[in-house]
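Hi C.,

You asked whether I'd gotten around to modeling the 140-residue construct. I have! Everything is below, sequence then structure, no commentary in between.
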Amino acid sequence: MLGGVRVAHTHGVVAHSDGDVVLHALPDALLGAAGLGDIGQHFKDTDPRWKGADSKRFVRAVMDMLRARKLRVGNADVTVLAERPKLAPVRDDIRRQVAELLEVGVENVNVKATTTEKLGFLGRAEGIAAQAVVLLVDAG
């Protein structure tokens, strides 16, 4: 899973929840921008409630927290760091899914991919990572 989209690949991610690195990076960025800590503080990986959880639940829960603080998403930029899988075939699907979850237009979501040029565990295709940056605006 990447950004809520099932991506066909020969390998998967070992994780407590569904391992969607995009939908883990987004709540982290949202929480950080709102001064609300990080994903691990709100959704502990030792909590059995999150075992195998759909990461969309994390994004939706954080969006509820933002609404309570009268904040909304202005835009989001996500970078996936991986040698494989290639994102081009699913990039638009991920953008649409993320836009829906963040309650913004698809034009306010950017998804890009990069490699580490064969360096480190990511370069050896032993893992995958994502980073996200978001802009929050006053919804009041």
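If it helps when you're writing up: The longest strand covers residues 71-81.

Thanks,
B.
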